[in-house]
Amino acid sequence: MRSACDVPHLRNNTVRSLQRELDSLKADGLHRWLRRVDSPQGSRIRVDGREAIHLAGNDYLGLACHPLLTQAACQAALQYGCAAASARLISGNYDLYPQLEEQLARFKQTEAALLFSTGYQANLGVISALMGSQDVVFSDALNHASIVDGCRLSRAQVRIFPHNDLITLERLLKQEISTGRRLIVVDGLYSMDGDVAPLREIVGLAERYDCMTLVDDSHGTGVLGETGRGAAEAMGVLGRIDIETGSLAKALGGFGAYVVGSRTVVEYLINRARPFIFTCALPPAVPATVLKALTIVDQEPQRRQRLWDNTRYMRAGLREVGFEVSPSGTQIIPLMVGEPERAMRFCQELLDRGVFAQGIRYPSVPRGTERIRLTVTAAHSKADLDAALAALAEAGRTLQLV
Fold first, then answer.
1. Of 108, 219, 292, 380, which one is the catalytic site residue?
2. Residues sharing a CB contact under 8 Å with residue 105, sequence separation 6 or more, in sequence order
3. Is 191 a catalytic residue?
């Protein structure tokens, strides 16, 4: 039995081992730190004490600081206070939450919706609640970390197929003879690569091989499709996805997340999804802002049009400079670098020139695919994009990337 005098020694050993791991991350170019932001989100941002053109965020429609959203948040805070102070299953279910859920279900053309505190919790909650050790999940290799962790937490058998590889997916579906539940899970719009999942073909395979489908459309909601309903609308399968999760903190300018699907699935999650059951409800200001955001998405399609105009302009400018640009056509544009130290040097070269675009490294992306991730928004002016392209050209030449 350990004596009390042993404890500080053990604690010091633990701290030293943690420091060794941190030193190893630094040596490998994988150390992370928090930047300081002291301005609102927008086309420009003050980061680490300097103003820069903002190409690193996810405020795709420019709604995060929209006056109607901030007004709705203030009114909700005055009416309900700053916190729900309880889980929704106890005393935290203010009327704003079911209002937003009904609106989200209508928007996504599903039977029901359920709010979660974060997108991460939504994927953890759905996958771990629906799937168990006798079940099988077919997961895209580039799925978001929350999907990966949800699969692990569920203890289901996981079959990983290469990114968007429908041939391998069908082969795995044919080979798997489990009699339990079967689930295909993908991102709708991949946050680091900017490409859209082939949902029409995936849904066809799911229907042929008796699988449920789960799509995380965090980066497509509000953006993709004729009316902004997301990847399912853009791919022509609206109403055929079994379950969709997504963030309210990106194009919708709020916070939290949603799950949409059948009434049976939503009722099941209310009873079985631990991240929902055991988490305090979102602050009342959050659903109030998202309700307003959904109205703007519906009433102001010109925001999406401006986003796509800016995206086409930026992509054409990058090609003209000499960068290799993916053909996906979305607002997420990765510029491949291939080395962690070089990616972060590229990031710093850009910041020195007044552009903030984050370097992305393992484990956010596979090793050897380190990159700068550019995100275009509806809020950017042509002057912003021209200045950013000039900085990208200079930094690219400095690092011999173009």
1. 219
2. 111, 112, 113, 260
3. yes
Q: Which of 54, 108, 144, 250 is catalytic?
A: 250
Query: Nearest 5°: phi and psi at 336?
Result: -75, 135
Is residue 133 flagged as an active site residue?
Answer: no
Q: Judge whether 219 counts as a catalytic residue.
A: yes
> 67-299 maps to which CATH number?
3.40.640.10
Does 29-60+301-398 match 67-299 in CATH topology? no
- The superfamily in CATH containing domain 29-60+301-398 is Aspartate Aminotransferase, domain 1 (3.90.1150.10)
Which residue of the set 146, 191, 218, 247 is catalytic?
191
CA proximity to 212, closest of 139, 287, 114, 153: 139
**Tens of pLDDT along the chain (402 residues)?**
455 555 666 678 888 899 999 999 999 888 988 899 998 899 999 999 999 999 999 999 999 999 999 999 999 999 999 999 999 999 999 999 999 999 999 999 999 999 999 999 999 999 999 999 999 999 999 999 999 999 999 999 999 999 999 999 999 999 987 779 999 999 999 999 999 999 999 999 999 999 999 999 999 999 999 999 999 999 999 999 999 999 999 999 999 999 999 999 999 999 999 999 999 999 999 999 999 999 999 999 999 999 999 999 999 999 999 999 999 999 999 999 999 999 999 999 999 999 999 999 999 999 999 999 999 999 999 999 999 999 999 999 999 998
Element (H, E) at 257: strand 257-261
Q: Please provide the DSSP assignment of 194-214 as one string.
A: -PBP-HHHHHHHHHHTT-EEE
Going from the C-alpha of 224 to that of each of 155, 215, 240, the distances in angstroms are: 33, 14, 17
CA–CA separation, 202 vs 367, rounded Å? 27
Distance CA 127, CA 143 (A): 13
Domain assignments of the chain as residue spans, ordered by start: 29-60+301-398, 67-299
